[in-house]
């Protein structure tokens, strides 16, 4: 019977066949231990010389990444965290691999990135993609179970919700177009048609940042809710993030173990999350020794990390100054220098994972803000019209998938959280 490695627990004591690759092997003159992988998991195969000498010679000659059908009996194995291994009885080689470039020795990051198409096969990268996949699944589950509809915004756009400096320009026949920076403006239109919606798709930022948190192409989840005040949106955010963390802890145990992720830090992630105003955060930073920071400055990674370290859960920094945030954010009635917005900062130095706000719903105010921001009114006419026909208070947010994967997996750089990351100076493979 043909099975996959993840089905092995159901076949203890049975003779089965698995299509797989050789990850690594070790052994002596008497026994070979084959590390097998098939995409669903990793398992050890054992070949004993005494039992079958020609099979033993085949096993000894296997190269890294050779593909094969391997047949044998599944046995319990309490030394491995998977819990099962195979006593191999037959090996049918499908394709012999020679000179696989990624060997068990240490390679530099650039070399691994050049070989990303192969690096994806390694144990750690496999675990990170499993966690990414779980977050994707749990995102759909969360929003569908809570009455949201998925509405897909366009990728080719004429607008720039997050400022004009980071746009990817392209020609759209005779017109100018940009790759979407965010689906938000379209999600707002959809919320006026469907109430609670979310988008989940690729977004693009031509940012000249070369940090461990920035990608040029990243995936964003953007919920938008009609009749939700900013406070209501914060509650959605903390419940959604708590859900993602609990689902990853429950379904990705082996992956987290393979990544040596300290899960106690994740087990603490329960709503509600603490909140600190931007203004208080400035004071806190001054006390912590950032003497040069002034009210009105934006936060960089060291500032965010310092603020996050002050709490043991993700923290919302609320009410940033209007000048450093996007044009569409509603003014804070209690302090008109600031807006009704929040950035959610993850613990352990992973930085901002969510940006969100209440949106301006008054026509004249929004028009004025678009003009003040130097944007071309023509491109936003449709967006303004949402404030002309039954405008309502509404709020939404955007969660960055790759930063969230990095945080939950415990990997230091977002380049390992996208299957084929687009980075400054990297379009290959
Ligand atoms: O804070 P941002 O720019 O917010 C928006 O785009 C809003 N329109 C969202 C909304 O309200 N619907 O981006 C949101 C999140 C960030 O918190 C971060 O997690 C991620 O997107 N992000 C990036 N991730 C990787 N690389 C980049 N260059 C990123 N820029 C933003
Ligand atoms: Mg932001």
From TrEMBL:
Compartment(s) of residence: Cytoplasm
Annotated ranges, domain Aminoacyl-transfer RNA synthetases class-II family profile: 131-429
SUPFAM superfamilies recorded: Class II aaRS and biotin synthetases, Nucleic acid-binding proteins
Chief localization: cytoplasm
EC number, as in UniProt: 6.1.1.22
Domain of life of the source: Bacteria
Self-association state and partner proteins as the record states: Homodimer.
Family membership: Belongs to the class-II aminoacyl-tRNA synthetase family.
Stated name of the protein: Asparagine--tRNA ligase
Species per Swiss-Prot/TrEMBL record: Salinicoccus siamensis
């Amino acid at each position: 019977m043909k099975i996959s490695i993840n089905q092995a627990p159901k076949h203890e004591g049975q003779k089965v066949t698995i299509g797989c690759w050789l990850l690594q092997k070790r052994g002596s003159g008497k026994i070979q231990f084959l590390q097998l992988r098939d995409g669903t998991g990793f398992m050890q195969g054992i070949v004993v010389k005494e039992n079958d000498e020609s099979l033993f010679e085949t096993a000894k000659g296997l190269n890294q990444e050779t593909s094969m059908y391997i047949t044998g009996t599944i046995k319990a194995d309490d030394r491995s965290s998977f819990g099962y291994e195979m006593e191999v009885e037959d090996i049918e080689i499908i394709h012999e691999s020679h000179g696989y470039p990624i060997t068990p020795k240490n390679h530099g990051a650039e070399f691994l990135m050049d070989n990303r198409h192969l690096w994806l096969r390694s144990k750690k990268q496999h675990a990170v993609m499993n966690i990414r996949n779980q977050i994707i699944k749990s995102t759909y589950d969360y929003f569908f179970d809570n009455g949201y509809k998925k509405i897909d915004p366009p990728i080719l756009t004429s607008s720039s919700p997050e400022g004009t400096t980071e746009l990817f320009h392209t020609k759209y026949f005779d017109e100018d177009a940009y790759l979407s920076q965010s689906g938000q403006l379209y999600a707002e239109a959809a919320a006026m048609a469907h109430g609670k919606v979310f988008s989940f798709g690729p977004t693009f930022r031509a940012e000249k940042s070369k940090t461990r948190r920035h990608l040029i192409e990243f995936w964003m989840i953007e919920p938008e809710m009609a009749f939700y005040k900013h406070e209501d949106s914060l509650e959605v955010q903390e419940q959604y993030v708590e859900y993602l963390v609990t689902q990853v802890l429950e379904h990705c145990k082996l992956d987290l173990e393979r990544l040596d992720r300290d899960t106690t830090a994740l087990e603490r992630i329960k709503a509600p999350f603490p909140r600190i105003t931007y203004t208080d955060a400035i004071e806190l930073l001054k006390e912590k020794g950032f003497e040069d920071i002034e009210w009105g400055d934006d936060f960089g990674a060291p500032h965010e990390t310092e603020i996050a370290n002050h709490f043991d859960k993700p923290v919302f920094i609320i009410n940033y100054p209007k000048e450093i945030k996007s044009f569409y954010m509603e003014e804070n009635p209690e302090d008109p220098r600031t807006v009704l917005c929040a950035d959610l900062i993850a613990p352990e130095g992973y930085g901002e994972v969510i940006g969100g706000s209440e949106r301006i719903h008054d026509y004249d105010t929004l028009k004025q803000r678009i003009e003040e921001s130097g944007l071309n009114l023509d491109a936003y006419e449709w967006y303004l019209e949402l404030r002309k026909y039954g405008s309502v208070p509404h709020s939404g947010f955007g969660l960055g998938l790759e930063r969230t994967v990095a945080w939950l997996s415990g990997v230091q750089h977002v380049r390992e959280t996208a299957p084929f990351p687009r980075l400054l100076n990297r379009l290959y493979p």
